[in-house]
Amino acid sequence: MRYISSRGDAPALSFDEVLLTGLALDGGLYVPEKWPRFDAAALRDMASLSYVEQVVRLTHPFVGKAIPEAAYADLVVDSYSAFDHDPVAPLVDLGGGIHLMELFHGPTLAFKDYALQLVGRLFNHVLESRGERVTILGATSGDTGSAAISGCVACPLVDVFMLHPKGRVSEVQRRQMTTVDAPNVFNIAIDDDFDCCQDLVKTLFNDTAFRNDMRLSAVNSINWARIMAQTVYYFSAALSLGAPEHEVSFAVPTGNFGNVYAGYAARCMGLPIKRLIIGSNHNDILTRFFDSGTMEMHEVTPSLSPSMDIQVSSNFERLLFDLYNRDGKRVTAAMAKFRESGRLKLDLECYRTAYELFSACCLDDEGTLAAIAQEYKNTGILLDPHSAIGVYAARQLGGDATAEGTPVVALATAHHAKFPEAVEEAIGMPPQIPEPLAGLAGFKERFQVLPADVDAVAAYVREHAAVMAQTARGRGGESEGKTP
Ligand SMILES: *Cc1c(COP(=O)(O)O)cnc(C)c1O
Hints:
The chain is of the alpha/beta class.
């Protein structure tokens, strides 16, 4: 499988190259040159497979020659062994044709585990065969950091440096990162806010010498392998609700457009998805876009669903590439104009194409709390603020679909206990905290406090990455490639 850039002006890459590369050199995002297709017979055949078997069947075509199927299957089995539920992505009937897909059965209780457990192991595997190591550097306000750290714990060739704003991450989320006891994980608490953490990371990535020396890499949501892994739960849900004989719709609380783009990818692979319904919080750039055909940047303000507080949805460019019939020059021009003016307007034909598949609605914090309370009252199920927005979107916009008997699957992207304050505010009592989270309080926390100073962060990363590399060499060349 080859991957091409959405801006049409960067070299095509193989899977292992795309895995280790973030943005393409032309500033675009990589997408597969051709979608692997699964016809009705292939889908029927897959319905009885386990989740892990579905992952291998559906995603190995994306990996291709980069990793032989048997070795890939081992990595997949290992990735999902840390999940505490069988099936891995269970469905719960909420009534009214709406089904909740629980994507919080991984180690950090949020859907990012479904991709990042695999991505960490893929990194390690590819690096091992190349005799290389990398340094993952990132900034987090919560969810992404813990999922990325957890995904890399078992990956000795990957060092993870994760910056979080000191005292500004929820206690649960901080402990999920800082209680991880692994020599390759380095938590850095920056004495400033999240924007500052992000600026520090950006500055270090823009420092070419540092980036090359440290072999900096990222596991952010534009990484192709994350999208690939996320396509699987769309298949698993639809197959258990009657696909390929019946269509299924999905409602997705989204920020960076990564998760819902994976649904789009599943459809391109042959899954009969009728509609993709998007839920956003008051940072509603996507809802405004799908309502009007014009994307327009606004300020971001904090919400109860922080993982969806974004200004620009980076993965949207992958959809735009297809809407523009894969014309990279057109995408380049549109993105340049968007950066300059803060506006991107689709022509009518493209907008129609998008509108046939996607619809969107937004919900502010007050509405989110009401939605949590309402679902709890009606179904006894507690939702976290992100998932509540997805369920609300399903109930608002799934109507057309359900009236014709098309089920809607709403994606629950996090366990409610990760957001206990919001849940308590919604239902008037604190939720029970499940053991994996409650138990964290007993573990020692490890993190380094640093000032908001790029030289201090650079020096810390340099020093500790060097020690890790040296230890690996001392152990007999784990980082020098496989000895025959
Ligand atoms: C990251 C995240 C989202 C948003 O996912 P995107 O891929 O950016 O759309 C939604 N909910 C939760 C709980 C998350 O952690």
